[in-house]
Amino acid sequence: RPYQVDTFWDASSDTFGLFLVLAMLYPVANLIRRLVLEKEKKIKELMFIMSLRPTAYFASWISVYGLMYLVLAGVLTGVSKINLFVYSDLSVIFVYFLLYLISSIAFCVFISSILDNSKTALIVGLLLFFVGYILFAALNTSSIPAA
């Protein structure tokens, strides 16, 4: 059979982004909470007093979560390559997921830099993270017919 229609993967490809965002809510919440909690308890300030440079501080967070997200990007690539992105190059899928996950680290650092209370930062950060996907889904132009 030269052409086969698989309706399950056609339907799930539309919701894959939602599942990815939902899967990322816990790591994003954990990173925001930890970053703001360090600032709230003045641990970050104490490290700076002990002559820690800000680049080393943020590099430590980026490297810890970057390594975790490197593994997660590999798992997501393997799972999505099975039936979702069958005709895409494996390295392109991996880089796509890795860049998305690293951008979530930058988002968490951004939220932690503007809010001082860990509970408030957690709620605002998760709401903005989820609203970002909702806006993307609402403005997705793939459902608009071509002229």
Automatic annotation (TrEMBL):
Keywords: Membrane, Transmembrane, Transmembrane helix
GO MF entries: ABC-type transporter activity; lipid transporter activity
Ranges of residues in domain ABC-2 type transporter transmembrane: 16-138
GO CC terms in record: membrane
Membrane-protein topology: Multi-pass membrane protein
InterPro entries: ABC2_TM, ABCA
Residues spanning the membrane: 16-36, 57-79, 91-114, 121-139
Compartments in which it is found: Membrane
Protein's name according to its UniProt entry: ABC-2 type transporter transmembrane domain-containing protein
Organism for this UniProt entry: Aplanochytrium stocchinoi
Source lineage: Eukaryota, Sar, Stramenopiles, Bigyra, Labyrinthulomycetes
